[in-house]
Amino acid sequence: MPDRDSRHVPSPRAQPGADPETDRMDETDRADESDAERRRRRARFLRDLAEARELRDRVQPRRAKTARLRHAMRMRTFRW
Description:
Strand content: under 5%
Number of strands: 0
Oligomer: single chain
Largest sheet: none
Distance between the termini: 40 Å
């Protein structure tokens, strides 16, 4: 996997007023952009989470197998 520098990039919310173009936008554009930014951050978080799970499963195969069996048991006993 490629090295990522996303840890070193400050969050847009960490520096309010740093971008002069966003200061000129009206309120609806800001809401749309913040929703889009929130979705991007959420997608990045979910990708990182899935990557961490895959890594954990590779590193600890016995624990991963036990977790899969537990999950299968929960799904079999779940009632709608």
